[in-house]
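Morning, I've got a small favour to ask if you have a moment. Here's the protein in full, and shout if anything looks odd to you:
***
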Amino acid sequence: MSSIALYVGLGYVLVWFFGARGVLSGTISLGVLVAFTQYLWQLYGPIGAVSRLYERFQFAMTAGERVFEVLDTQPEIDRTRERRSAAGVSGAMRFENVYFSYEDGAPVLYDIDLDVRPGEMIGLVGRTGVGKTTIVNLVCRFYDPDRGAIYVDGHDLREYDLRSWRTQIGMVLQEPFLFHGSIADNIAYGRAEATEHEVIAAARAANAHGFIMSFPDRYDS
């Protein structure tokens, strides 16, 4: 588009330069110069429109390539073993001899053993790149271990239906984010059919019920 604009601007400069000289010398009238300028504008208008259309087409092609690249991406996990529902799991989790590496082949997790009891709170501490986020990604089944296994309630995590399993996972971000709507709407965002009792129970579990009740409209705030 910048090259088109350059040529358009150069064309106008040349028309006005030579046209002004012609008007001053009496070769052409001022009306002819104005008319020629209008004709030039009528010529460049469609050219500019075509160039803008071409830019939009190029943008659409690039966006389409990215979309199809995502659609054609093969899943990183094996879903052939899924046959269990995760509804009602107690949450006992065990990492047993877990190894994992990304595409470059450098090991991120090496022979990890970890037991987490239901309701237990743990913290993963370490320098950048030691695998803290990788462990969370494995729990969410964004990836599967290269070796070893993760067990939930005594069953291999790969046996649980992926959608069912992920409904059991909640994420708390470092920075709070609220969607437009009431507090109750935000709490029930991941489960639209949640009842008022379930919303309050979730708030109590997060130790949020107390300060929510301090608002004038409470859960409708």
